[in-house]
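Practice problem: dihydropteroate synthase
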Amino acid sequence: MPKVKKKTLNLRGNVLDLTTPVVMGILNSNADSFYAGSRIHSVDQAIERAGIMRSEGASLLDIGGYSTRPGAADISEEEEINRVLPIIEALIRHFPDVRISIDTFRSSVARQAVEAGAVLVNDVSGGTLDPRMFETVAGLDVPYILMHMRGTPQTMTRHTVYNDLVPDVLFELQQQLATLRSLGQKEVLIDPGFGFAKTPRQNFQLLNQLEAFQTFDTPVLVGLSRKSTIWRTLNIQPEDALNGTTVLNTLALIKGADILRVHDVREAVEAITLVTNCQSA
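Answer key — structure tokens:
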């Protein structure tokens, strides 16, 4: 009998139903993210942007202070913490029911963010850049997004050689997932890691075979929003990549994505509505 993929997330007692896919809105508290429209420069701006995303239908907000675009500059843990904690605290004050994800690969940042009210840890490194991350998250008892990446944000473009892309990615994720489970981590989401240690052609291959990630008994998160696979292929800029994002998000939904991580919430919610209505017709 085939395994039924988990369709809920327990966010510290608040259960998020994923029977219908949901949207995670991106809030970047830095000046180095590849898409300028996602950058937050003040707490007030974060509150305003979060309010808009929530009104447009975002179920989760992902707060990040460390830019992970290829070649991005490294920053200290202290600076990352100073960028994200005031925003998390302010959003919780203004929106008591908000569900916040902390986008970090550092266990100390994850711990302090969760203590401040975040209910989900989104680690682009899949536990490869901080040996304390898995143990920390297991102890915090919050869901963890296990993303596939090789190298670091500064070096990942040099780690794109695979024997067989999709089986290799699945294997590497399975190894990390087994370690997480051995530590008692219950709630895990899988992110194939579009754009991280993958060429544009490899990203298309990954999306084309996204159904393969249904083998994990976990929800699947997809982050394709305005990434270079879109704008380099179309010979445009990130600012012009919304239509391309919607096209790829639609394909991801058809192939089983449960969460879309996006800069543009309304358009992603509309894609979900149309795809789910088509699938239920």
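Discussion: The chain has one domain: 8-280. Students who identified this feature from the tokens alone can consider the problem solved.
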